[in-house]
Design brief:
Blueprint: H1 3-10, E1 22-25, E2 34-39, E3 46-51, E4 79-85, E5 88-97, H2 104-129, E6 139-148, E7 167-172, E8 175-177
Parallel strand pairs: 2-8, 5-6, 6-7
Antiparallel strand pairs: 1-2, 3-4, 4-5
């Protein structure tokens, strides 16, 4: 069983995105939702797109929800995309942004802590029950901000992605070329 399979078994299907091919971010007060289509480049990657949105479903129920809670306690990225490719499991933490991207880094870093918990859980299951054989060296984590570009005039297709950055900022007019991030 791959690390991808193990992580998918740990995560509840309840949080699978309603569409596995499009990421949507709706903001109150804006007239149009940001839509980003996942472009596999006809490779048909094995992948699962998860949506952890506190507006839609409660998933941080053990954290304080009151105004007295610490700032940033309940922050999380918009999507988690798990992809199996070349014997590796890629975990892409994705934050969609329309305007200012300030604060996106904090959401991605908070989400990284959640991913660390998932990996620790898989390792514990292996250690305590031998159900899993989780190997972190087969897992690659990427934190990505997808900044909306208003028109197709801004060329993004030839954009090189520096995968060594802690947080990758990508400008998109509605497409997310998945293979570039693997």
């Amino acid at each position: 069983m791959t690390e991808y399979d193990q992580l998918c078994l740990i995560l509840s299907d309840e949080f699978l995105a309603s569409s596995q091919n499009i990421m949507v971010e709706k903001k109150e007060g804006t007239h149009k939702a940001q839509r980003v289509y996942i472009d596999d480049g006809k490779r048909e990657f094995i992948r699962s797109l998860y949506r952890f949105d506190l507006e839609e479903k409660e998933f941080l129920c053990f954290f304080d929800k009151t105004n007295d809670s610490p700032e940033g306690l309940r922050k999380f990225c918009d999507y988690v995309l798990l992809v199996q490719h070349n014997n590796k499991t890629f975990i892409l933490l994705i934050e969609l942004k329309r305007g200012e991207i300030s604060g996106a880094d904090k959401q991605l870093k908070a989400s990284e802590v959640f991913i660390e918990f998932l990996q620790n859980t898989a390792e514990r299951l292996h250690r305590d029950f031998s159900d899993f054989n989780f190997n972190r060296s087969n897992v690659v984590l990427r934190k990505i901000i997808i900044k909306e570009v208003k028109s197709n005039k801004t060329e993004t297709k030839g954009t090189l992605i520096d995968k060594n950055q802690d947080i990758i900022s990508y400008k998109s007019s509605g497409q997310f070329p998945l293979a570039k991030f693997l």
